[in-house]
Amino acid sequence: NAMFSWQRTAYHFQPQKNWMNDPDGPLFHKGWYHLFYQYNPDSAVWGNITWGHAVSTDLIHWLYLPFAMIPDRWYDINGVWTGSATLLPDGRIMMLYTGSTNESIQVQNLAYPANLSDPLLIDWVKYPDNPVIVPPNGTETDEFRDPTTAWMGPDGTWRITIGSRYNKSVGLSLVYQTSNFTTYDLLEGVLHAVPGTGMWECVDFYPVAINGSTGLDSSANGPGTKHVLKASLDDTKRDHYAIGVYDLATDKWTPDNPKEDVGIGLQVDYGRYYASKTFYDQSKQRRVLWGWINETDTETDDLAKGWASVQTIPREVLYDNKTGTNILQWPVEEIESLSIGQATQLDIFAEFEIEMVSETKHEKYGCSGGAVDRSHLGPFGLLVIADQTLSELTPIFFRPVNTTEGTVETYFCADETRSSEASDVYKQVYGSTVPVLTDEKFQMRLLVDHSIVESFAQGGRRVITSRVYPTKAIYGDARLFLFNNATGVKVKATLKIWDLNSAFIHPFPFDQN
Ligand code: DQQ
């Protein structure tokens, strides 16, 4: 539908048509990155969930492949749901996924490539004795899904974790042990549980190096590592994580700061973002994060435009040893291969220095006032996807505030409230505090792609993804502005802007169906 064609992104991954949701089983094999994804072959709304499949040599330019798995067995006839890949030391690939059965029971199934020597991994075989795990006693049969990548314990056997819920509101993750990926033992207790957080979907669990600039294989552990536990909260549709320590002897994980536990502390992304998943890229020794950007328009609009949802640009994940309290997320370096395009496709680096021009006073604005409310120290930042008359604009900004303790706390925010003149669109102000250390300037990097803005503050300590629907600020009419609404500071900004090319996504040379 040409009416909505400007909303299609130019360098983010999205299928040619129809509905997409969670990223599944990302992996690197024989020179190719593989992305599988929840897909409805028949419509632009959720249903008939099938595994779409695409490959790339650089995580930016993609080739669509035939579906990897379709819902065609009793144990997944209601959907081939989310799952994860494990690469075995002998080269085999184990894909575990949730099937919704003919009775809508959530079970875990095993699949593997028919031919490992095929770099494109076109054909997938479902294990004949599926399911390999059924919901354990005491677990609701529709609250048991999304197995993780396996990691190897000190005893040489594998472990996976699966999100669930207990007693109506306790979110948790169960641990299973296996040596062959076909038979599993449920371990006693849980990896972790947090009261009040509800059902945990798409749990992700991985090690990070405390000092080091490379990612770690999922089985790495011991001194010098911490573990990130991530859950997608079904109740709030937000991805939350915490950093902590994994005890190999008991298979329990403990957060460094219980006040910032999973689901009650940090978010992976403070914008429109869900069901994220990492994988270890053995070719570049890095951990790469995918995330799903859902729509915020109506189902009617999605059906009219014929497609729904986009994946984020893959992000490299590291532990932030400067703060010790958060991960860092940064777009993969390959994005720099896209050069010179148009102003709706930008990679922007901005740095701000502030100079006090009047006495400071205590103020308590966070992000909630958007970019409109003026205060002593902010807001200041950039207006993206704006038209010349400023009838449509999306401010991405910092707002430092003086706390009662005499310190400065900085908020990083994205204000979508004026992003579109369309009325049937959900527009929100997103944001969070972000650590800005004493020797640091305020820094942001923005990836702008027609209707998506991914915003990274302070080298990736906080990230906000915005889904916007401009009606005027499209193609050549989109502008970028700097703004400073602070009443008490002068702001000096340094900007570096790269126009990005389109990453053409190629169809596979034969029919998908
Ligand atoms: N999406 C899948 C589930 C998962 C949910 C179904 C999260 O496996 O829990 O499409 O978005």
Automatic annotation (TrEMBL):
- Leader sequence range is none
**What pathway or pathways are given for this protein in its record?**
Glycan biosynthesis; sucrose metabolism
Give me any GO biological process, just one.
carbohydrate metabolic process
EC assignment: 3.2.1.26
Residue intervals of the Glycosyl hydrolase family 32 N-terminal domain: 12-331
Q: Where is the Glycosyl hydrolase family 32 C-terminal domain?
A: 337-499
Provide the Gene Ontology terms for cellular component: vacuolar lumen
**Tagged with keyword Transmembrane helix:** yes
Q: Which reaction does it catalyse?
A: Hydrolysis of terminal non-reducing beta-D-fructofuranoside residues in beta-D-fructofuranosides
The molecular function GO annotations come to: beta-fructofuranosidase activity
* Compartments where located: Vacuole lumen
Enumerate the UniProt keywords alphabetically. Glycosidase, Hydrolase, Membrane, Transmembrane, Transmembrane helix, Vacuole, Zymogen
Q: Record's family?
A: Belongs to the glycosyl hydrolase 32 family.
* UniProt-recorded name of the protein: beta-fructofuranosidase
| Provenance organism | Salix viminalis (Common osier)
